[in-house]
Amino acid sequence: xxxxxxxxxxxxxxxxxxxxxxxxxxxxxxxxxxxxxxxxxxxxxxxxxxxxxxxxxxxxxxxxxxxxxxxxxxxxxxxxxxxxxxxxxxxxxxxxxxxxxxxxxxxxxxxxxxxxxxxxxxxxxxxxxxxxxxxxxxxxxxxxxxxxxxxxxxxxxxxxxxxxxxxxxxxxxxxxxxxxxxxxxxxxxxxxxxxxxxxxx
Length: 201
Prior knowledge:
The protein is α+β, with helices and mostly antiparallel strands.
């Protein structure tokens, strides 16, 4: 094992892979030494500051080619994705709404899906900030890519409550549970699980 990496805010497995020279982030995530991390975090896209990721030794790839000729080699590096869902004040999806998404120098246009979602892939893993505008509605938002903490951590469920328009405290969590019609006395862990499912829809 070459070394380990301590996660900082905004990092995910893709950014860590790029930093350590890996084209495939899953080669790190699926390494046996990261079993305990996989058990706790479930997703390589949602890590928490302070998590320790073990970095395996980088395997060198050797390609044979003839001399005296030009050869092209294509390297594929891990990238980041943006997934955000827009809903109105009644919780209904804002569907088929034109948007402009800017991540660094990359600008993309499209329409939200029937579920109100924007899903764009392939951004540079070093990008941690995006600007999105629903052009017909004049809605502009700044997105912090990779800054969402695991939902069982206090910071994670508070972030998700705020993203859904609730107060980011125990009262907000209780209000969310009532809105979801969860039985009174539902275990806090189950409420956080429901919050996780709602926030990723």
